[in-house]
Design the sequence.
C-alpha cells in the first residue's frame, strides 16, 4: 500500500497539536501503589465493595491493583474497574516532546549513518570534506529523508 506522504505530514502535525496537552500529563508519576488503589481509597471504597461491583472477590481486586503497578493489567480490566468507581481510563501514546521532533531526530541519525560510510571512503581517498560541509550534507540529506518518510528513518543502526 502506497502511503500519501503529504497526508502523513499533515496528520503528524495535527496529531502533534492534539498530543501537546498530554505531554505534561504523561510526566505525572503514577502513585506508588497505582492509580486504581489511590482512587479507590480516595473514594472511601473498600476492596470488598469494588469486588462486588466487578463480580469478583477481594483477592481479585488486590491482584488487579498489583498487576496495574507492574504494568501488566489489561486496558479492559482497568476500564471495568474505573467505570465501577465512576471514572474512566484515558489512554494515549504520547511522545516525549513531539512526533515532528522524533522524525527530525530519526532523519538526522539516518543521514549521519548513510554519510558516515561515504565519508570514510572519501577520507581513505584523501577527499574528505570539512566538518562544516559534512554537517550541511547531513542536514540536506535529513531533510530529504524526512520529506520522503524514507524507510531508512526506522532502520536499526549499530
Sequence:
Amino acid at each position: 500500500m502506497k502511503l500519501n506522504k503529504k497526508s502523513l505530514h499533515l496528520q503528524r502535525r495535527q496529531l502533534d497539536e492534539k498530543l501537546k496537552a498530554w505531554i505534561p500529563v504523561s510526566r505525572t508519576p503514577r502513585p506508588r501503589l497505582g492509580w486504581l488503589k489511590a482512587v479507590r481509597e480516595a473514594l472511601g471504597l473498600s476492596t470488598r465493595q469494588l469486588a462486588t461491583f466487578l463480580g469478583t472477590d477481594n483477592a481479585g481486586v488486590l491482584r488487579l491493583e498489583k498487576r496495574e503497578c507492574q504494568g501488566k493489567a489489561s486496558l479492559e480490566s482497568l476500564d471495568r474497574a474505573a467505570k465501577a468507581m465512576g471514572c474512566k481510563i484515558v489512554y494515549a501514546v504520547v511522545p516525549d516532546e513531539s512526533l515532528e521532533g522524533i522524525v527530525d531526530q530519526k532523519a538526522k541519525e539516518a543521514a549521519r549513518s548513510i554519510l558516515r560510510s561515504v565519508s570514510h571512503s572519501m577520507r581513505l581517498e584523501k577527499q574528505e570534506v570539512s566538518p562544516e560541509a559534512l554537517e550541511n550534507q547531513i542536514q540536506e540529506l535529513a531533510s530529504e529523508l524526512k520529506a520522503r518518510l524514507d524507510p531508512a528513518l526506522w532502520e536499526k543502526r549499530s
About this structure: The helical segments are 5-19, 22-26, 35-42, 47-54, 58-70, 75-84, 99-124, 131-148.
